[in-house]
């Protein structure tokens, strides 16, 4: 796919996607040409996208970031999902040399000590593997939703990712959690059992806790930090560029 004006291309795609259902959105994106990659964290919304890709046999690569610190339940869900939809989820993990260098500078669990150390850990375990997962891609599909946090409230259906030089598509941007749960129930989509234990958003085990009643969906991520808009850098351009540069 040749992109002459990437921002205009993203705006036009955003308008087209707004009028389609999820299957239509994914089918449209899959037909644009080039390599299309969906990165899944195996969270409930990502499982909805995976189900549609698998059910409709769409030519979209599915990848996950196997950080080395995931919950056992998440790892088991990868295998279960592959079997149910007869798909392959590509795993991209950190390099041992990067983990060793991080541990030497900060300590293996140094991410608890400072925001800098936490960003550095996300850079090694998530940002660098993501770069490998997206090599050669022209379109990146994510499970971002506007209802996940205040920081994501303006998430579009399509945008140009200037850091990675590709189109980023968020086909569930306008779905709320009740619509997600209804789809899962109606279609028998396998989900992480941790969701039923108070974990609406699930990342690495040391960095995720169950949320309390009334807390936002992502309150359990990096809960010891005070910044309510905290992210790992995957979806925040300025953080991504800073982490990768380290």
TrEMBL record:
InterPro entries: APS_reductase, PAPS/APS_Rdtase, PAPS_reduct_dom, Rossmann-like_a/b/a_fold
Keywords associated with the record: Cytoplasm, Iron, Iron-sulfur, Metal-binding, Oxidoreductase
A GO BP annotation: cysteine biosynthetic process
Cofactor binding note from Swiss-Prot or TrEMBL: Binds 1 [4Fe-4S] cluster per subunit.
Residues at the catalytic site: 232 (nucleophile)
Pathway annotation: Sulfur metabolism; hydrogen sulfide biosynthesis; sulfite from sulfate
Binding of [4Fe-4S] cluster, residues: 121-122, 204, 207
Cofactor section: [4Fe-4S] cluster
Record-listed E.C. numbers: 1.8.4.10
Pfam families attached to this UniProt entry: PAPS_reduct (PF01507)
UniProt-annotated location(s): Cytoplasm
Catalytic activity reported: [thioredoxin]-disulfide + sulfite + AMP + 2 H(+) = adenosine 5'-phosphosulfate + [thioredoxin]-dithiol
One GO MF term: adenylyl-sulfate reductase (thioredoxin) activity
One GO term describing the cellular component: cytoplasm
Main localization (coarse): cytoplasm
Phosphoadenosine phosphosulphate reductase domain ranges (all copies): 36-210
Keyword Transcription regulation: no
EC class (word): oxidoreductase
Family the entry assigns: Belongs to the PAPS reductase family. CysH subfamily.
Function: Catalyzes the formation of sulfite from adenosine 5'-phosphosulfate (APS) using thioredoxin as an electron donor.
Name of the protein in its database record: Adenosine 5'-phosphosulfate reductase
UniProt organism field: Rhizobium aethiopicum
Gene that encodes it: cysH
């Amino acid at each position: 796919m040749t992109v002459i004006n990437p921002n205009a291309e993203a705006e036009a795609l955003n308008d087209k996607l707004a009028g389609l259902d999820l299957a239509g959105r994914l089918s449209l994106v899959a037909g644009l040409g080039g390599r299309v990659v969906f990165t899944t964290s195996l969270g409930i919304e990502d499982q909805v996208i995976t189900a549609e890709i698998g059910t409709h046999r769409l030519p979209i690569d599915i990848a996950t970031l196997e950080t080395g610190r995931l919950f056992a339940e998440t790892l088991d869900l990868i295998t279960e999902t592959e079997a149910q939809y007869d798909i392959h989820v590509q795993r991209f993990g950190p390099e041992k040399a990067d983990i060793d260098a991080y541990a030497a500078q900060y300590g293996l669990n140094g991410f608890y000590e400072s925001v800098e150390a936490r960003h550095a850990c996300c850079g090694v375990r998530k940002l660098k593997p993501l770069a490998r997962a997206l090599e050669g891609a022209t379109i990146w599909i994510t499970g971002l939703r506007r209802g996940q946090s205040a920081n994501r409230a303006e998430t579009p259906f399509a945008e140009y990712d200037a850091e990675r030089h590709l189109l980023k598509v968020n086909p569930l941007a306008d779905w709320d959690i009740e619509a997600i749960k209804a789809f899962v129930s109606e279609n028998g989509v396998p989900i992480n059992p941790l969701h039923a234990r108070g974990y609406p958003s699930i990342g690495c085990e040391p960095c995720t806790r169950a949320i309390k009643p009334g807390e936002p969906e992502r309150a359990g991520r990096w809960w010891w930090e005070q910044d309510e808009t905290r992210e790992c850098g995957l979806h925040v351009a300025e953080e991504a560029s800073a982490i990768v540069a380290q």
